[in-house]
Design a protein that fits this description.
This protein is an alpha/beta fold and 263 residues long. The strands form four sheets. A seven-stranded parallel sheet has the order 6-5-4-9-12-14-15, with helices on both faces. Strands 1-3-2 form a three-stranded antiparallel sheet. A three-stranded antiparallel sheet has the order 10-11-13. The chain starts with a helix and ends with a strand.
C-alpha cells in the first residue's frame, strides 16, 4: 500500500503531453485497452482518459472503440475505405460465391462491412431482391442497380465513416423481418465461433444471427484463426461460410463438425 501511495501523486501530476504519449505507447503495446484500465495505469480520471483518447484518435495515432481504444496495427480494423482496398480480389471471389446461392425475389438481411459491400455489388445483378441492411453504402448499391431490387435501411444511430446505423433501435427493427438469408461479415473466425472487433457492430450482428433461419458468413482468408474482442455466434448457428479458399484442416474439421457448408 505504501508503494502505491508514493507513486500515485507522481502519476496524477504527469504533464498531459507525457501522459498521452504514455497512453499511446500502452495501447500500441497491448493492441487494445479499456478506458478503466488506462485510468488506473496512469492515475487519471476516466473523463481525462476519454479526452486523451479523443485527441489521440483525432491525431490518427489510435482508433477509439466502445469502452476504450485499439492500436491501428492491432485488433481494430481501420478506416472503411482502407478495408475496402485490402484483399479486394479475394472479397470479390467470396461475393460471387454468395451470389450463386441467392435466387430472384428473395429477401436478404445484411450487415455493414467491406466484404458485404462487395457482396451487394454482386447481388445487384439479381432481380427483385429485398435487401435489409444497416449500411447506407449497401442500400445505395442495391437501390441504384436498376434490377427491380429494393433496399430497406434499418434505423438507429448514424456512424460517419462506415456510413451505418447501429444501436437499440436498429437491433429492435431486425425482429420485424423474416429474411431468406442473413449475411454477415466478421473480423475473426476460429473453431470456437465468429467475432467482431467493434462492440456496436457485434451487437447488431448478434441480433441478426438470432433471427436467422439461414445464416451465412462471408470473409476472406485474412480473418481466419484470428482473435477479436466480441463474440457474434457459435459455429452451430451458421449454415454457410463463403471463403476465397479452403481453411486449414483444424478449422475445416470444426466447421464440418458443426454442419456448416464451406464454399
Amino acid at each position: 500500500m505504501g508503494k502505491k501511495n508514493n507513486i500515485q501523486p507522481k502519476l496524477k501530476s504527469m504533464r498531459p503531453s507525457v501522459r498521452r504519449a504514455g497512453i499511446h505507447e500502452y495501447v500500441e503495446r497491448r493492441g487494445r485497452a479499456a478506458v478503466e484500465d488506462i485510468a488506473e495505469k496512469f492515475g487519471a480520471s476516466v473523463e481525462t482518459v476519454r479526452r486523451d483518447l479523443n485527441l489521440l484518435a483525432e491525431q490518427g495515432r489510435i482508433r477509439k472503440v466502445h469502452g476504450g481504444a485499439v492500436s491501428l496495427g492491432g485488433e481494430g480494423e481501420g478506416a472503411f475505405d482502407e478495408r475496402l482496398a485490402k484483399n479486394a480480389q479475394a472479397k470479390r471471389e467470396v461475393a460471387e460465391k454468395l451470389a450463386r446461392m441467392v435466387q430472384p425475389g428473395e429477401t436478404i438481411l445484411m450487415d455493414t462491412g467491406s466484404t458485404t459491400l462487395f457482396c451487394a455489388e454482386a447481388l445487384a445483378r439479381i432481380r427483385d431482391l429485398t435487401v435489409i441492411t444497416n449500411s447506407l453504402r449497401i442500400a445505395h448499391v442495391i437501390a441504384g442497380a436498376g434490377s427491380g431490387s429494393k433496399a430497406v435501411l434499418l434505423g438507429g444511430t448514424y456512424r460517419v465513416g462506415n456510413d451505418q446505423t447501429y444501436g437499440p433501435r436498429a437491433c429492435a427493427e431486425i425482429a420485424e423481418y423474416r429474411p431468406d438469408h442473413v449475411v454477415l461479415t466478421v473480423s475473426a473466425l476460429d473453431a470456437t465461433g465468429a467475432f467482431d472487433a467493434d462492440h456496436e457492430e457485434a451487437e447488431l450482428a448478434r441480433s441478426m444471427a438470432r433471427h436467422a433461419r439461414n445464416l451465412s458468413l462471408v470473409l476472406d482468408h485474412s480473418k481466419l484463426n484470428r482473435t477479436a474482442a466480441y463474440r457474434i455466434c457459435d459455429l452451430t448457428q451458421v449454415r454457410h461460410v463463403f471463403l476465397n479458399h479452403e481453411p486449414d484442416p483444424d478449422l475445416l474439421a470444426a466447421l464440418r463438425a458443426a454442419k456448416v457448408s464451406v464454399h
